Amino acid sequence: MTSIVDLKNVSKVIKGRKIIDSLSFQVEEGEVFGFLGPNGAGKTTTIRMIVGLISMSDGDIFICNESVREQFEKAIQHVGAIVENPEMYKFLSGYENLLHYARMMKGISKEKIMETVELVGLTERIHDKVRTYSLGMRQRLGLAQSLLHDPKVLILDEPTNGLDPAGIREIRDHLRMLAKERKMAVIVSSHLLSEMEMMCDRIGIIQEGKLVDVQLVKDFVAVEQVFEIELNPVDTAINYLKNVYPEVQMTSSELGISLTVTRDKIPEIIKTLVLQDFHIFGIKEVSKTLEDRFLELTNQGEGQK
Amino acid sequence: MIQLIRNEWMKIWKRPATLVMIVILLIAVLLLGAFNKYQSSGFSVPDNENWQHGLELENKRYKEMLKDEHLPSETRNYYTKEIALNEYRITHDLSTNIEYSAWDFVSDNIQLISIVGLFTIIIAAGIVANEFNWGTVKLLLIRPLSRTKILLSKYLTVLFFGFIALFVLFAFSFALGAILFGLPEEAYPYLYYSDGVVKEQSIFIHLIGFYGLNSISLIMLTTMAFMISSVFRNSSLAIGISIFLMFMGNTVTFLLANWFDWAKYLLFANTDLTQYFDGTPLVSGMTLSFSIIMLLVYFIVFIGLAFWVFKKRDVAA
């Protein structure tokens, strides 16, 4: 994997206050990187520094090895972005909006514009005024705008803000497709955890301008797994299991027993229970949610100070 | 660059407000035309057989006046000029009995330049501030183009708009003038007086120059509105200040010039360059080159501020 976006000790000082404090991380090609943090943690500021809307006080950002600070025009040509809501010229049609942005970059043909429109599924309404579009359609137009020049990096700030579930799902599918099929690096910021869990490969948590943690979503959520077995009778089962697996942590829960084990142990445990004639009605994985982890991590961050 | 200007041009014309402006301009010309045509006292041709004799009498009177030792130099210059022009008319048989023609109508419509100025200021005030209001500035600035280029394209678009609006005014005035008042049978030259010699000039060239000189304050005010728009991101402020100055600037400068010598450094003391061609300078001692330098200084300050702030700005909200 090659890293496409590379932040090196980026800081931003506004009126003597450090909004962003030497932030460093990389985003690789083909991955969806989630940028997570509570409101006011500096997500938007960081994203705006990557796309050059806000200047850096210190450090530098490299996009495809080109410095945003020194060679902005070269670095930014690899980037497509929607910063916050996709604000378009409402008095122009969708097509005119895209034409407007296409003219600002080299070598984008009319065919390319229509191809992008096709991709985001706006072909039927593209010649209507943006004023008449729904929020979901505007979001799709925003996505089309950011994909016109086949960028290597796609940056979306709060892409699901204000969208209905269908719209959110649509965006999610688009992003995953772009990352997997076109090998794009996608950076998404959000404070919606469940959203991030479904969308991202890797998540960076930012708090008070500092990067608290970067982890793969898989690891992030599945450090410990809790399984709940619904069975009868509960008390004898617990006693029995405690004898067989003394190292396993278990408690009785609403429906049966909660066990904290690694996944590969499950078949064995079930087999033992069945052989002992316990009545098993069901078993399910109660994974620790991103939300729990997130709160855990950010609270830790606060606790350390 | 051309592409960027095409973008700005598209964004201007796709808004109904712009079309309304042009329609208002055309209506204003129509109204003036109708007013001139049907006004009863009208511009009936002064049917004066003895126009040459009239001019001779006038010259005689001026010469009498010139004998006065205490005559201020400006008045003296004016009389000398009038005498020279009259003598030129007599010797070259250029009758003063001329009909009001399309050219005169175009010349009269020079007052409508302030309407063109008003509209150009509105465009200039909005062209940067609106991008911030609409939030579209965020998508505009993340393209592989420097901010300087983007702002420059906007400024050039504003100037181009002003130019087109002036052209519409000129062309429509001429067309309507030709329909209502007709074209003169033979081109009547415009006479002007410089360095003691009377010269002839084509009326067309003269009017173009006249429009050009009158557009200087338009350009300066537009540039100022553009600067305010870029610095404060607020179109109402830019429109308000610029239009206030457009209507009050001249008057205030004129009043100040009565008492203070430094009034000559004010922008509005220098925007009217016609004062050096026919008339007297606002503050004595001002020269054409002084005014041009002052205008350049103001221009550079406005443009410099606009670009400097725009380039440095963090786009946060």
Describe the structure in your own words.
- With 305 residues, chain A is an alpha/beta fold.
- Chain A is built from eleven helices and 14 strands.
- In chain A, strands 6-7-8-3-9-10 form a six-stranded mixed beta sheet, with helices on both faces. In chain A, strands 2-1-4-5 form a four-stranded antiparallel beta sheet.
- With 317 residues, chain B is mainly α.
- In chain B, helix 1 crosses helix 8, helix 8 packs antiparallel against helix 10 and helix 10 runs parallel beside helix 13.
- Chain B is globular.
- The chains are: A alpha/beta (305), B mainly alpha (317).
Features:
heterodimer, A: 305 residues, alpha/beta, Rossmann fold, Alpha-Beta Plaits, 2 domains, 6-stranded mixed sheet, 11 helices, 14 strands, 30% strand, B: 317 residues, mainly alpha, 13 helices, 70% helix, 3% strand
Overall pLDDT confidence of chain B: 83
DSSP helical segment count of chain A: 11
Helix content of chain A: 25-40%
Determine the CATH topology of the largest domain in chain A: Rossmann fold
Termini separation of chain A comes to: 36 Å
CATH class wording of the largest domain in chain A: Alpha Beta
Unreliable spans of chain A:
301-305
Order of helices and strands of chain B: HHHHHHHHEEHHHHH
**Range of strand content of chain B:** under 5%
CATH architectural designation of the largest domain in chain A: 3-Layer(aba) Sandwich
- Major sheet characteristics of chain B: 2 strands, antiparallel
Unreliable stretches of chain B (pLDDT < 50, length at least 5) are none
Task: Sum up the overall morphology of chain B in one term.
Answer: globular
Number of strands of chain B: 2
List the total number of helices of chain B.
13
Q: Return the structural class of chain B.
A: mainly alpha
Supply the number of structural domains of chain A.
Answer: 2
Radius of gyration of chain A: 24 Å
What is the number of E strands of chain A? Answer: 14
